[in-house]
Please model this.
Amino acid sequence: QLVESGGGEVQPGGSLKLSCAASGRRIDYEAMMWARRRSGGGLECVASIKNGGSADFYAPSVRGRFFISMNNDKNVLYLQLNNLQVEDSGTYYCATDSRPFCGGPITPRGQGTLVTVSP
Model:
């Protein structure tokens, strides 16, 4: 089970840190991703991590602003979102990255966490 949290409403330029708590599985044994669904759009993989956190990938739209990490002891995946823009608004999900990086289908299992960026 994967449970996302940490979303909220911020102004442009603001920051949030999303968390994905895993149970029943070890996320450091897998490649994991954060994906988002923006209004009217499909799922988009924005960041991925594998090898226990030693390798990562970012979509061009978020590179340099978002940072993916994991706490292997707590079995939690994170996504630090900095310099948020209105176009970053959407529901964010964590999921297994079946074909790293971001090459396979995106199949979230949780409810996601909503990020709203508005002036």
Summary: Strands lie at 2-5, 8-10, 16-22, 32-37, 43-50, 55-58, 66-71, 76-81, 90-96, 113-117. The mean pLDDT is 95. The first strand starts at residue 2 and ends at 5.
